[in-house]
Amino acid sequence: MPTLLPPRVDGVSPWLPWLAAISLFMETLDATILNTALPSMAASLGESPLVMQSVLVAYVLTLAVLVPLSGWVADRFGTRRAFLAAIVLFTLGSILCAASQTLPQMIACRIVQGVGGALMLPTGRLAVLKSYPDRTSRMEALNFIALPGLIGPVLGPSLGGLIVEYSSWHWIFLVNVPVGIVGFVLAWRHMPQLREPAARIDVPGYLLFASGVLLLSYALEMFGEHRLSIAATLAMAACGIASIAGYIAYARQHKAPLFPLAIFRNRIFSIGILGNLLVRLGSGGLPLLLPLFLQLAFLYSPAHAGLLLMPIAGAALLVKPTVVPLIQRFGNYRVLMLSNIAVGAAIMALAFTTPQTSNLYFVLVLLAFGAAISLQFSTLNASALSSLPAQYASAGNMLLSTAMQLALSMGLTFAIVVLSLFLGQDFHPDQGKTFAAYHHTFITLALMTWASGLVFLLIRKPARQTTRPA
Fold first, then answer.
1. Which DSSP category does 295 fall into?
2. Residue 280 sits in a domain of what CATH number?
3. 422 with 440: CB under 8 angstroms?
4. Nearest of 381, 119, 376 to residue 272 by alpha carbon
5. Does one domain contain both 358 and 464?
6. 358: three-class secondary structure by DSSP
7. In the UniProt record, does the keyword NAD occur (predicted)?
8. Do residue 439 and residue 469 come from a single domain?
9. Residues 48 and 193 both lie in one domain
């Protein structure tokens, strides 16, 4: 369990873990506080709520593309300089987001935020890992850092709803400013300037990998928004696939590629990557769909919708300590299969709601969803990382982090694509058609979740091993 105070070690500022904790809190709060505000933001920017997923996807994709570079930047320029630059970019991006007048402006400013976010958290963690000499103090510091990351998603939806209802959506971004200023001052005084000889970065491999990720994600988003012709969208997707294929061919010949292909010979790790990508297609869009559903179908206020979403993060927080005991008791395979069934069942339960559905029904369903999704991905990621030999630990962690961000982006976009197909061209449907479209979407996502769980059959037998939740 996360500790309430960071460990004290001679020669290490006690503020260092607080800096990493603040960065994690800012990122996790920002990832959830926007969800309940999207309908209000859409109305203010003159857009349909169904295109507002671009605001979320732009940030997540920026993280996916730039996180692999964070270690090199920290080693090249030092942890202190990198961390200060990251806070400045994240805070500046927040201010620019609040000042945005159009959706394209908002997307561009979210990318600026994402550049800061991609560098801020990895650099803070790296400084902690290098500053604490022994395993015990290092684990205590990392556990302390984890606590704000668990609290942020609990506060995010309700805080976002309250801000929108009693002020304006602009303050959702402006709340980052005082936190960023405090973080900058503390980092200026207490963040150590740790540097290592920076290894040469694999520029061709990185460009091939990053362009493939961006093209595939953008093609999926354009398919949902109908901004490009089918031919242009398919051509973009084909270029993305060709770029990924080009990276695979390049990595086979390169002595030190960005992601060594040998890492995929580990079956459990490969299942972890594939499982993240497939399972999140079904469940990854719920944080976006639920606020829209509650506000557009049930006509709930942003504050009401935000409060109803709190059980997801609350249940995830409570389940976290049970992951290791459950893995030890039942094995990875059974935990993954049963949690996947529970995730799909919770999504399916949303398809049976009516205008008369009580708040208690939502609370119970979302508690089940939050607990199951936390158990599923904690087990999946812990199994993947713990199965890697030491020489692949760093590359595996970086690749898994990238895959998680990419999978989240794909899940958000896929959910909107499905919803758009059921709504058709009617962007202002009556309540009956709105309910029907969301119900059909939830059914589709539940079936997708259950189908994607078949990937876990590749784990031929339960792996009874001690792992730590990711």
1. I
2. 1.20.1250.20
3. yes
4. 381
5. yes
6. coil
7. no
8. yes
9. yes
DSSP tag of 390: G
Query: What's the CA gap between 391 and 459, in Å, rounded?
Result: 23
467 φ/ψ angles, rounded to the nearest 5 degrees: -130, 165
pLDDT-derived band at 111 (thresholds 50, 70, 90) equals: very high
Q: Note the pLDDT of residue 135.
A: 63
One DSSP character per residue, 28-45 reads: HHHHHHTGGGHHHHHHHH
What would the two tokens of residue 191 be?
């963040």
Residue 64: half-sphere exposure toward Cβ, Cα within 13 Å:
25
Whether the pTM exceeds 0.85: the reply is no
Judgement on whether residues 235 and 190 belong to the same structural domain of the protein = no
- Cα(34)–Cα(194) distance, integer angstroms: 34
Specify the amino acid at residue 375.
Answer: L
Distance CA 304, CA 16 (A): 37
Specify the range with the lowest mean pLDDT, choosing from 22-31, 106-115, 129-138.
129-138
Q: Which residues contact 187 (CB under 8 A, 6 or more apart)?
A: 19, 80, 83, 84, 87
Task: Give residue 27's identity as a one-letter amino acid code.
Answer: E
Highest-pLDDT range among 88-102, 172-186, 379-393: 88-102
- Per-residue confidence band for 458, with pLDDT thresholds at 50, 70 and 90: confident
The helix, strand and coil proportions of the chain, stated in percent and rounded to the nearest 5, come to: 80, 0, 20
Burial class (CB in 10 A: 0-12, 13-18, 19+), 301: middle
Tokens at 98, concatenated: 């609040």
Residue written as token pair 């091939």:
208
The residue whose two tokens read 């962007």 is: 427
**CB-CB neighbours of 326 under 10 Å:** 18
pLDDT at 110 over 90: yes
180 and 215 together in one domain: no
* Distance from C-alpha of 56 to C-alpha of 385, rounded to nearest angstrom: 27
DSSP for 182-240, please give it: HHHHHHHHH-------PPPP-HHHHHHHHHHHHHHHHHHHHHHHT-S-HHHHHHHHHHH
Domain assignment present for 412? yes
How far is 389 from 268, CA to CA, in rounded Å? 12
The sign of the CA dihedral 296, 293, 281, 114 is positive
- List the domain range (segments joined by +) for residue 146: 6-197
Q: How far apart are CA 289 and CA 137, in angstroms?
A: 41
DSSP state, residue 119? H
The reply to whether 226 and 81 lie within a common domain is no
Nearby residues of 290 by Cβ (< 8 Å), 6 or more positions away: 35, 305, 309, 350, 366
What ranges make up the beta strands (E) of 55-138? none
**Would you state the structure tokens that stand for residue 39, as one six-digit string?**
């309908």
Domain total in the chain: 3
